[in-house]
Design brief:
about 300 residues; alpha/beta; Rossmann fold; Adenine-specific Methyltransferase, domain 2; eight-stranded mixed β-sheet; two-stranded antiparallel sheet; 11 helices; about 35% helix; binds S-adenosylmethionine
Amino acid sequence: MTHEVFSLLNYIGHKSKILDQILSHFPKTIDGIMYDLFSGSCVVGLSIDHKDVTFVDNNAHLQNLYSHLQDDKFLSTLEAMIVKYNMTNSSKKSRSEYLKDPNIGTCVWHGKVVPNMHLDQLNIVGYSSLMLDYNAGNLKGISKACAYMILTLYGRNSNVSVKKDGNLTGGIGPLDFSIRAKKKLKNHQEIMKNRNLHFVTGTYKDVEPIAEDFVYMDPPYLASGFKYCGWTEEDEKGLLAWIDDLPCQWALSNVFISGNTKNKILFDWAQSKNVIYIKKKYRKWSTKGKSTAKKQNKKNEEVLILPK
Ligand SMILES: C[S@@+](CC[C@H](N)C(=O)[O-])C[C@H]1O[C@@H](n2cnc3c(N)ncnc32)[C@H](O)[C@@H]1O
């Protein structure tokens, strides 16, 4: 049995859209701990109906957010922070009301200057000030967790990036804490109830699974251009050697080919494994005309690798 979980954040590389294709290959029962390694938005580990899950990721900001999500005061702290930084909250007041604000600004649409249909101009000052406070270390614990969620939801592409020095960086986006975002938060809090969930800031070397456990891994993809804070051939080889020594069942998500780049290290290693090819899901609107052909020509071979 699985829970229906939608990614809380629009996290790069999240597996929400292909969960069914991944979870159908997981063991029916797990006697020990389920490890979700390189857990990102945690959707995989949260979706399975198993009590004991350990999430490991080296993004300390994310791990802090997820470890505070179940706090009864999370929603009230988040909404109070939105008020404090004078930002919009369309889960409470409708977008159309906000759009009447004279400070909404203008934008150019088909060569014409029209009123802005986004909330960015109303939030830009508060967003910058929250980012400064966050990076100055002025926010701790649950406040830091709420601030990270706000910086992500209100950020460009609903995202915020981590720099090499660990600080956050990113610009303002068009959205805010919407009715949908509030629903997703409540959905997460519901499925996290009465479970033993642990959030470790670290990497795969920090855990020692035993025979009864199950390990799912979703590392950065060597073949893809986006490597989070860095992922090298040495990291890849180290992980694959570690997997070969695992005493338990496991599954690894990855891509063999992305664009023109093939991950030969992974491909060669996987020859002795069971490889499941993931079917790409296209949005309905893109199934017409040229755009589909273009998209389908772009090679992206996504796989789930399991032991033989
Ligand atoms: C492909 S994403 C995982 C996505 C996740 N499965 C989801 O559904 O949201 C890869 C994750 O690996 C993390 N990461 C990158 N390098 C790492 C490392 N050396 N050790 C641990 N985590 C790492 C990143 O922070 C990122 O969250």
